[in-house]
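Could someone model 2-acetamido-2-deoxy-beta-D-glucopyranose with this protein?
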Amino acid sequence: MIVTTMVRWTCCLIIMVVRGIDGLDNGLALTPPMGWLAWQRYRCITDCEMYPDDCVNEQLFMKAADLLVSEGYSELGYNYVIVDDCWLAKNRSADGKLQADKIRFPSGIKALSDYVHSKGLKFGIYEDWGTKTCAGYPGVLGHEELDAKTFAEWEVDYVKLDGCYSNVRHMDKGYPEFGRHLNSTGRPMVYSCSWPAYQEEKGMLIDYASMAKHCNLWRNYDDIDDSWESMIKIADYFAQKQEFWAKYAGPGHWNDPDMLLIGNFGLTYDQSKTQMAIWAILAAPLLMSNKLAEVQPHFKDILQNKKVIEVNQDKLGIQGTRVFRDKGIDIWTRPVEPFNDGYYSYAVAFVSRRVDGAPYPYNITLEDLGLKNPNGYSIINLYGKEKSTTSCIFNSKTPIKVRVIPSGVVFLRMNIENSNTPCTDHSKNQFFV
Ligand SMILES: *[C@@H]1O[C@H](CO)[C@@H](O)[C@H](O)[C@H]1NC(C)=O
Ligand SMILES: *[C@@H]1O[C@H](CO)[C@@H](O)[C@H](O)[C@H]1NC(C)=O
Ligand SMILES: *[C@@H]1O[C@H](CO)[C@@H](O)[C@H](O)[C@H]1NC(C)=O
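Reply:
Sure, complex below.
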């Protein structure tokens, strides 16, 4: 028992030393944040007379809070309700404070925050480190201390700080400063930064060590739109940059490839599984942006897949990477618990980029995936039926076979094992769809 504990600790310490990340120390976001964020699905629709069911007003967030609870999302970890742009009045109040649009948020932000809290959830808000928000409402620049205090007064739990209308070169200083104002309020608030996305666009060298030290999560790249093309472009960019980005992710500090599109218009059922799998591998925040009342049951099943959420929320907090591309199949892996004696368990996603219609058969040994535990692995098919989980053990030399449909995914979890019941019936046990 003691030996195991020591092995585990040694292992963790080594990881921490090797990765050397000095992360933001506010005790929050120890696993990637989960919840609901308005932007992708609701944008800046402010005409509530014309579009009463689709506009950014207090009812939208109250309803989201209701549905996170009643539809079973919150018990799986989706517990942040986050307001995005377009909540503000065009001007600050006479005493210089931020204020919500009086027509769309007649009860005010504190009342909305109270409502969200009354549901056992957490409340997030949006602002911008600039003179204006991206949609042209007042930004925090010049009012940082007051605005941080206002958020604390409103009992905000999460602040997303965008970067429009600002000097991109000064963000390295400005974002940490705003973080210090948040810290000074004494109220723990998750701090979501956007500074790398703006610097990336300008081709600047980005100080990710500073990012991890000052932010709980940060948007690295473009906003996501409601299409496969947009989603996979972000995934590809993360793969291209993984050598520089992945090491900065860990408990309390995460790369953020942007919101989940699942349940909307742009992704098919299987493409939705692919986004969820890649986001789980990337240790990405799971922020849905959909119309919760209209999410079809099979999409809801993807969002509520406990085994996939468990991969995303893995306590080790190691961001996975794309390790191999072969014959139009992208292979993504992420080390997860349990681990022992230097050997990790893994989540492995086979994503098809092929367009020839038939499911494509692909085989590979665990060894070629870098999985070399001498006692082998059990394999769980994360989107499969219960019976597609194996009870026997795969050693690193046995090939496993998958069949992946165009733009679909086969998502497996390979847990290290100590027992030794090898899989003998190859035709049955090695095949995953
Ligand atoms: C907002 O403030 C600006 C100048 O500070 C002023 O010109 C404008 O009339 C104000 N708008 C509203 C809607 O109060
Ligand atoms: C403020 O920062 C200190 C030092 O990093 C940290 O220990 C503390 O938890 C932070 N407090 C809040 C409210 O974020
Ligand atoms: C696995 O793939 C290799 C190379 O593509 C192929 O030669 C081999 O026949 C396949 N094995 C099985 C068991 O399908």
